[in-house]
Amino acid sequence: MLYRLEGIVIRAMDYGETNKIITLCTQTHGKIGVLVRGAKKVKSRHASLTEPFTYGVFSFFRGGSGLGTLNDGEIYESNHKLREDLMLAAYGAYACELIDRGLHDEDTGNFWFEQLLAFLNGMREGKDPEVMMRLFEMKMLQAAGYGPELDICSASQRPVEGDAFISPRLGGVLSVPFRAADPYAVHVSARALSLLRVFAKLDLRRLGNVDVKPETKLELKNVMEALMREHVGTNFKSKRFLDQLENYGFDK
Question: Which segments in the chain show pLDDT lower than 50?
Answer without folding.
Answer: none
